[in-house]
Design brief:
Blueprint lengths: L1 H14 L5 E7 L7 E11 L2 E10 L9 E11 L6 E14 L2 E20 L2 E12 L6 E13 L3 E13 L6 E7 L2 E5 L4 E11 L7 E12 L1
Antiparallel strand pairs: 1-2, 1-13, 2-3, 3-4, 4-5, 5-6, 6-7, 7-8, 8-9, 9-10, 9-11, 10-12, 11-12, 12-13
């Protein structure tokens, strides 16, 4: 498991040359207190856009990495005059702790994406998709995602996402809704360097049947 996680780290380092930004967060949430490194990439093109990110939690023994999670998504234009794009997405990961490890179940999504250009540089993206979670007894699920991007007051940037999806409940025979949002606020200290914060707000994401709020302090380098 450690060899696999190390390979993922090396792959992420190789991608930094083309990634739009790398981030380092220090998690201040209850029972957390560890850093998370993120590699994030977004690129539009004539056929749509590609987005991915990889997270690495450094919460293992002696601050070694103990979790890696990635998402990669592709939006494809169906027509120049049709505003809804085809959305394809994969996400999954690995974890390891105290000599044990496992996989975060793979998820495959297919749906539609609609981009709203509101005003003054404010962009709101919306996505609704069918979600298949591997090895789930209730594999037919859905996910809604909203993303936003808003520069303001010259040096500030407000960005983030909100997810709502269904999945098999770990505590009953039914399904549950999972809510997760991570708004970020950044302040530019130069052309490439930003400092800021992220606040993870969730329900049924880690703990069941209650909301969790976990803020971070963060630095970011844009390429």
């Amino acid at each position: 498991m450690r060899k696999v996680l190390s390979t993922l780290v090396l792959a992420a380092v190789a991608m930094v040359a083309t990634a739009q930004n790398v981030q380092l967060h220090y998690d201040l949430g209850k029972d957390r207190g560890y850093p998370t490194a993120t590699v994030e990439f977004f690129k539009p093109d004539a056929w749509g856009s590609t987005f991915f990110f990889v997270d690495f939690d450094l919460n293992g023994d002696k601050s070694n990495m103990n979790l890696s999670y990635m998402e990669i998504a592709r939006n494809l234009k169906l027509s120049e005059n049709f505003p809804v794009q085809l959305h394809l997405e994969y996400n999954g990961g690995l974890w390891a702790n105290a000599g044990f490890g496992g996989a975060i179940p793979n998820s495959y999504l297919v749906g539609g994406y609609y981009d709203l250009k509101i005003t003054n540089g404010f962009t709101l993206g919306t996505m609704l998709a069918y979600k298949h979670i591997q090895n789930s007894n209730k594999s037919a699920n859905f996910q809604f995602t909203g993303t936003w991007f808003k520069p303001f007051a010259k040096n500030f940037l407000f960005t983030g996402f909100v997810d709502l999806w269904s999945q098999e409940s770990p505590t009953s025979d039914g399904r549950q809704l999972v809510f997760l949002t991570e708004p970020q606020l950044w302040y530019s200290l130069g052309k490439n360097f930003k400092v800021g914060t992220e606040v993870e707000i969730s329900r049924n994401f880690v703990s069941q049947d209650k909301f969790q709020i976990n803020p971070t302090l963060a630095a970011r380098w844009d390429f």
